[in-house]
Every structure is written in structure tokens, then in C-alpha cells.
Design goal:
The complex is a heterodimer of chains A (about 290) and B (about 425).
Chain A: E1 24-34, E2 40-51, E3 56-60, H1 67-75, E4 82-87, E5 90-91, E6 99-102, H2 114-118, H3 120-124, H4 129-142, H5 158-170, E7 176-180, H6 188-205, E8 208-212, H7 216-222, E9 225-230, E10 235-241, H8 244-248, H9 253-256, H10 262-285
Parallel strand pairs in A: 3-8, 3-9, 6-7, 7-8
Antiparallel strand pairs in A: 1-2, 1-4, 4-5, 9-10
Helix pairs in contact in A: 4-5
Chain B: H1 2-29, H2 49-67, E1 82-91, E2 97-107, E3 130-135, E4 140-141, E5 157-161, E6 164-165, E7 171-174, E8 177-181, E9 187-191, H3 205-218, H4 225-256, H5 258-271, H6 280-287, H7 291-315, H8 319-327, H9 332-369, H10 375-384, H11 388-416
Parallel strand pairs in B: 2-3
Antiparallel strand pairs in B: 1-2, 1-5, 4-9, 5-6, 7-8, 8-9
Helix pairs in contact in B: 1-2, 3-11, 4-5, 4-7, 4-9, 4-10, 6-7, 7-9, 8-9, 9-10, 9-11, 10-11
Classes of the chains: A alpha/beta (about 290), B alpha+beta (about 425).
The structure holds adenosine-5'-diphosphate (ADP) and magnesium ion.
Chain lengths: ~290, ~425
């Protein structure tokens, strides 16, 4: 089998773990932050969500509507004020390697070279050296950085750094990949390429992916399911099921944008978010 | 004042000259991308290498010119050396006046034994000719009436110098010097000083250099130069290493654990603003002036700086890096070793540079106060004996070593943490 990336059959020592098609359940999760001033913010209110194994979900919403908070709860960095998150029936209480994270730029370890960054997960698991080398080689090939193995992080462009971040996350072969605006800091062209890469990786690995973004187009292109969240309190405003992600696998994403449904959807969501932002501004003006 | 004016003049003249020359040269070689806005654009201000070179040369030239150095081609006028004379007029009780001459021999400082006052004839009249010797930059009280037929006890007094009438307290310029009449009426001769500095104030560059060679070979105060400097360096390194060994873990503990931060914060915050120099008396009381006390002092100087640097290094870790590591399955120990420690290295190095600077300053100061050997002790003892050349040599050495330490730290930093400032 010739892989999508023009890669030969995976090495026998490393292959994606397809058996773990675990469902992620978010059940009535609320999060209240107590501020030092004595006030408190209800960042999330009663979020419930079922995500099937292998789904790709994108989350949109104005700043401050609790997207990052939700993702951090799923990752296990926060425990919610109420409600429960569980993966395959096991409640999430702390961060773990079965839930990988990809952050916006700056989360790579710049004191390590590309190879050591990607090898971080396998090496803290104390896998044998040869196995780690296999994983690193394979993943760097997948993200197209085969020749950059020995480069320092600061020698790479922003797009390449995010490729490393993806590879580092995949090296652990997680069941769920959580991405918080992973492409937010990239220029438009690089971003388009990376969107294609994310889609193809999703298709090849069959991982569950939750991706937060600020870009409506990105949310539409990558979201098999798309959530629009609303602020104060953070809640799910609207949910879509979309065909574009499935269509986009291996295809030219610019063609997908010409799809009949794409334009109307984009306009609809844009005006939805526009209205929310207007409302926030209005509330700020009336001093609420 | 003259030195300052000369310095400013050289600054301006060199600027104009270099401008002229480099203007011609760029005209010849053509100009590459030129910014039109440079005033206010910090990045457009590059340190002019010519200015630096001329600046250093200027300092040595001025130093040489004002100390009569043999290395500089020109000097400001030096003190008068040689023979000169002035006349005085004595008037005795009955109003008769008589003149006599005072021959003066001015010798170079430090050459006293080689000279005797010039031989003179007593001359006619009741006032007899005198003869004295005096070192440059010194003055001599000339008891002119000592050999006179009627002296001060007989009611005679000096009423004129070189024919000019004087009262006690007056000064008269004579050949190559000044004569001041003391309150008791005795002339006091001071040879002309010129503009050069006296060696005990500022020795010439070659005197300092030859002193370096001498002390490097024969030593001073029972230790060679190398030993003095070596001991100072040893104390700094020992104090710094001990301070880091305790301070860095302390800083990590404060950055990672609330109880530790609460416990040590008052201590660190209190000790941080206390200058290490203020601890010298207490350390001397507790530990004496030996090596132990010095190292304790430097340990304390480095400790707080390193603890604060390590704490800042921990709080400087981007939370996304820590989160990423946890999500990759790392445990607390792995996070500490593979994320927090490497991430805090830049801060720790900045702290180390500061700490080394402070330790070097503190060790010199502590040696000034009390020590058996060391760079500071060397210059302190030398200053008591007015061996200004050793003092200046010591100051230059201390400066060079301090600078060397900083360069060394910076090089190590660039080598160890190449990602600094590029994250
Ligand atoms: N650690 C925290 N402490 C206090 N308030 C927080 C914290 N994290 C987030 N918030 C608040 O929760 C709300 C949601 O934040 P966030 O999840 O970052 O929004 P988004 O990612 O959608 O921009 C914001 O109002 C923010 O100020
Ligand atoms: Mg966010």
C-alpha cells in the first residue's frame, strides 16, 4: 500500500493504533473561575457533548467564550467545577499521553533539536532506543521534515515548527488530539498547506481530533462537526455536521471552498459570530 | 581642568578628522544601503571602531603626557629641575639693608642623596649668601638669616625678594619658582611645578609596567602577583560555586512549591537588598579574616542572586511547555529535568553573570579591609606606602579580570544555550 504521503508501508515496529476508537464524553461540564478581585466568571455552563472515535470536531467562537477552558478540561489540566469528562468510560482527572495536545507556537522545547522534540513522548515512556528512532523517522517523514532532524527549533519557520509539534504529539500515538489554535500564528499560505496536512493525518490515523480555531473557513474545512460557542456564560450555541472534511481529504482545499454549501455556511456563521461580538461590545458599553 | 579641556579637544578634533577621512573613503568605495533616519533609531547607531581605538590611545597619551613618560612623544611642561637663585633683602634694626643671594638646587624626587646644595661664597655685607636643595614638587624653608651677621634674633627681617618689597604672607614669583614669606618672616621656596603629575599621585605608564614585571617575578608582601590574583579568583570561584549549589536548588524549590516560597521569601527578599559589603564586619567577627570568612561572604553574595535567578527561571517557563510535557506522559521528575531546568538556564546564566560581577567586587573590597593576600590587599598595602604604581597596576588588573570573567560567562552562555532570545 502506498500511503497518502507517498510513504512506503509503515515500518513493522510502528503503526497507528486503530483499535482504540474510543468515544469522548463531556457530561454537563461547568467551570467557574474565582478571580482575585472576589468576583467569579462562569467560563463554561453545562456543556454536554459526545464525540465518537475518529471524529474531527472544530470549535469556533468569539474570544473569551471558553474554548481554551473546555479543551484544557478535556486535556486534564483543569478539573471542572461540576460535570465529568470521560474517555472510553474512564473519567479524565489529569493529563495523560492518550490525549495529545498541539498548541499555538511556542510550546516546543527549544533546547532540544527536532529529533529530540519528537522523541520526547516515547522517551519518557522509556521505549527502547531503536523503536524511538523508528517512530521519529517515520513521523518526520509524515510531516515532511525528514531532512530537518538535527536542526534546532529556532532554525525552523513557524510552519515547520507546527509540523514538529504535530509529529511530537503523534509520536505518542494518542487516542485524542487536542489542538488550540494550532495554525493561528501562521501566514495564510502556510496555513492552507497545514490544513491539508491535518486532514490527511486525520484520515490516515483515524484519530479523534478537537481543533479550536478563530478562522471560520478553517472550522468549516476541517470540521466534520463544527461547534459554535457563545460567551458569558460559555455554552454551545449551534452545532453543524459538515461534508467538507471528508471531501477535503487528499483534495485541493481551494476547490472545496467552491462547494455550493460552503459560501452560505460561512456567511451564516460569520454573521452569527459578528452578532455575538456586537453584543459583547454593547454590554461593555453599558458597563455590564 | 587642563586635562579635561585637552580631552574634550581631542574628542572633537578626532571626530572631525575621522569624519573627513571616512567621508573621502566612502566616496571612493561607494555607499551601501544608507538609512536616512539614524537619530533615534537605536539599531542604526553602531559603535564606531575608530572612536574606540582613538579613545584608548587618547587615555594613554594623556597619561603619558602628564607624567613625563618616555613612551609618549610629547609632554606637558614638567617641574623645574636644576639650579636657580633668588635674592633677598634683609633690614636690621637701624634700617640698613643688605642683599644676599640664595642658590637653589632642584633635584628630581627620589634622587635626594645624589646632590648637595651648591657651594657659595658668603659675599659682602651683613646678609650672607645661602644655598639650599629641594626636590621637585616640594618646598623648602630657607633660613636665610642663619648665617647672617645680624639675624632674626637681632631684629633683622627680610623685607624684599628679588628687589620687590614683601610682608609676611606675601608671595613673589622668582626665577623657576615662587617665594612665600612665612608668618615669622622666613622665605619659603617652591620650585615651579609645571603641569606634570607627581609620581606618587600618578606614575608614568612605564613605571606601572615595570612594576608589573617586578611583582610578577619577585612578588609583593610575600606573594607573587600571580598568587595574589589567583587567591582572589579562587575565593570568587569557591564562593560562587557554593552559592550556586545552594541557591539554585533553593530558587527551584521557591518556584515550584508554595510552602518553600512562603518560607524563604521573607529571608531572600530581606537579604537581597543588603549589599554584601555590609556583611564584611559581621563575617570578620564570626569567621575571622581567613579564607573561610571570605568564602562565606562570597557565598552569601552569590546565594541570593542565584536563588532569585533560578526562581525567575522557573516562573519564566511558558505554561504551554509544561502542559505539553504532561500531555506527552512526563512525570514531575521528568518535567523538572527535561523542561524546567533547561528552560531556566538563560535566567540562571544571567544571574550567574551578575553574581560573578558582584563576587569579584566584593572580594576586592573584603581584601581591602583585611586579608593576608589577594588583589585588594595588594593595592591597599601599597597605598599605605604610597606605592601608587602598584595601586594603579592593581586597579587595571582587577578591571581586566572582571572584564575577562564577564566575557568568559558570555561565551559559555552562547555555547551552552544557543536558543537564548530566539525562542
Ligand atoms: N485561569 C483562569 N483564571 C481566571 N479566569 C480565567 C482563566 N482561564 C480563563 N479564564 C476566563 O474564562 C473565560 C474563557 O476563557 P478562554 O477559555 O481562554 O476563552 P477562549 O479560549 O474562547 O478565548 C475568559 O473570560 C477568561 O477570562
Ligand atoms: Mg483560547
Amino acid at each position: 500500500m502506498q500511503g497518502r504521503f507517498g510513504v512506503k508501508d509503515p515500518e513493522p515496529t510502528f503503526s497507528w493504533n486503530f483499535t482504540n476508537m474510543s468515544d469522548l464524553t463531556i457530561d454537563c461540564v461547568s467551570m467557574r473561575f474565582n478571580l482575585p478581585s472576589g468576583d467569579s466568571i462562569l467560563a463554561l455552563e453545562n456543556i454536554s457533548l459526545d464525540i465518537k472515535g475518529g471524529e474531527i470536531l472544530t470549535v469556533l467562537g468569539p474570544s473569551g467564550c471558553g474554548k481554551t477552558t473546555l479543551l484544557n478540561i478535556v486535556a486534564g489540566f483543569f478539573s471542572p467545577t461540576s460535570g465529568i469528562v470521560s474517555l472510553d468510560g474512564r473519567p479524565v482527572t489529569e493529563p495523560g499521553p492518550e490525549r495529545g495536545m498541539v498548541f499555538q507556537q511556542g510550546a516546543l522545547f527549544e533546547w532540544m533539536n527536532v529529533r529530540d522534540n519528537v522523541a520526547f513522548g516515547p522517551s519518557v515512556k522509556k521505549l527502547p532506543k531503536s523503536e524511538i528512532d523508528d517512530i521519529v523517522d517515520r513521523l518526520l517523514e509524515v510531516v515532511g521534515l525528514k531532512d530537518f532532524k538535527d536542526k534546532a527549533i529556532y532554525e525552523l519557520s513557524g510552519g515547520m515548527q507546527q509540523r514538529v509539534a504535530l509529529a511530537r504529539c503523534l509520536a505518542n500515538d494518542p487516542e485524542v488530539i487536542l489542538m488550540d489554535e494550532p495554525l493561528g500564528a501562521l501566514d495564510a499560505l502556510t496555513r492552507e498547506k497545514m490544513q491539508g496536512l491535518v486532514l490527511n493525518l486525520w484520515d490516515e490515523t483515524k484519530k479523534t481530533i478537537i481543533l479550536i480555531t478563530h478562522s471560520v473557513e478553517e472550522a468549516l474545512l476541517l470540521g466534520g462537526r463544527l461547534l459554535v460557542m457563545a460567551p458569558r456564560p460559555g455554552r454551545i450555541h449551534k452545532e453543524y455536521r459538515l461534508p467538507f472534511a471528508a471531501l477535503g481529504v487528499g483534495a485541493d482545499l481551494r476547490e472545496i471552498k467552491k462547494h455550493d454549501e460552503f459560501g452560505p455556511r460561512r456567511d451564516e456563521i460569520l454573521s452569527m459570530i459578528w452578532d455575538m461580538e456586537e453584543e459583547i461590545m454593547g454590554r461593555m458599553e453599558t458597563g455590564m | 581642568m587642563i586635562i579635561l579641556l585637552a580631552y574634550v579637544a581631542i574628542f572633537v578634533v578626532a571626530y572631525v578628522a575621522v569624519r573627513q577621512i571616512s567621508g573621502r573613503l566612502t566616496h571612493l568605495w561607494g555607499v551601501t544601503a544608507r538609512k536616512t533616519v539614524t537619530f533615534g533609531d537605536e539599531s542604526a547607531v553602531t559603535s564606531d571602531r575608530w572612536a574606540s581605538v582613538i579613545s584608548v590611545i587618547t587615555i594613554f597619551l594623556l597619561w603619558g603626557a602628564f607624567t613625563g613618560s618616555k613612551l609618549t612623544p610629547f609632554h606637558v611642561p614638567g617641574p623645574f629641575i636644576g639650579e636657580t637663585s633668588f635674592t633677598y633683602t634683609s633690614e636690621n634694626l637701624d634700617g640698613t639693608r643688605d642683599d644676599a643671594t640664595v642658590a637653589v638646587l632642584v633635584f628630581e624626587v627620589g634622587a635626594e642623596g645624589d646632590f648637595n646644595p651648591p657651594e657659595v661664597e658668603p659675599g659682602p655685607g651683613f646678609a650672607k649668601n645661602d644655598s639650599v636643595k629641594v626636590g621637585a614638587w616640594r618646598s623648602v624653608l630657607v633660613r636665610v638669616d642663619k648665617n647672617d651677621e645680624s639675624g632674626r634674633e637681632d631684629g633683622a627681617k627680610v623685607v624684599a625678594i628679588d628687589g620687590r618689597e614683601v610682608e609676611p604672607g606675601d608671595s613673589v614669583n622668582v626665577n623657576s619658582g615662587t617665594v612665600t614669606i612665612s608668618s615669622k618672616g622666613t622665605p619659603n621656596f617652591k620650585p615651579a611645578e609645571g603641569w606634570q603629575m607627581e609620581p606618587i599621585w600618578l606614575p608614568s605608564p612605564e613605571a606601572v609596567v615595570s612594576r608589573v614585571a617586578e611583582i610578577a617575578q619577585h612578588g609583593y608582601q610575600n606573594s607573587t602577583l600571580f598568587q595574589h590574583v589567583g587567591w582572589s579568583l579562587f575565593r570568587v570561584v569557591a564562593g560562587f560555586v557554593l552559592g550556586s549549589l545552594v541557591g539554585i536548588p533553593l530558587g527551584y524549590a521557591m518556584g515550584l512549591n508554595g510552602w518553600c516560597r512562603g518560607w524563604f521569601d521573607p529571608i531572600v527578599e530581606f537579604m537581597r537588598p543588603v549589599p554584601p559589603l555590609a556583611l564584611i564586619p559581621l563575617v570578620i567577627i564570626w569567621a575571622g579574616i581567613g579564607e573561610f570568612g571570605k568564602i562565606i561572604l562570597l557565598f552569601l553574595a552569590a546565594l541570593w542572586i542565584m536563588a532569585i535567578a533560578a526562581r525567575a527561571g522557573v516562573s519564566g517557563v511558558a505554561i504551554s511547555k509544561v502542559h505539553a510535557a504532561y500531555s506527552l506522559g512526563a512525570n514531575k521528575f521528568q518535567i523538572l529535568r527535561r523542561v524546567i531546568i533547561p528552560n531556566s538556564l538563560p535566567e540562571i546564566f544571567t544571574g550567574a553573570r551578575v553574581a560573578m560581577g558582584v563576587c569579584w567586587g566584593t572580594v576586592v573590597a573584603a581584601e581591602l579591609v583585611a586579608a593576608e593576600r589577594g588583589a585588594g590587599m595588594m593595592i591597599m598595602v601599597a597605598s599605605r606606602f604610597q606605592l601608587t604604581d602598584i595601586v594603579i597596576m592593581g586597579i587595571i588588573l582587577i578591571g581586566i579580570i572582571g572584564f575577562g570573567i564577564d566575557i568568559l560567562m558570555r561565551t559559555t552562555e552562547r555555547w551552552l544555550i544557543p536558543w537564548k532570545g530566539r525562542g
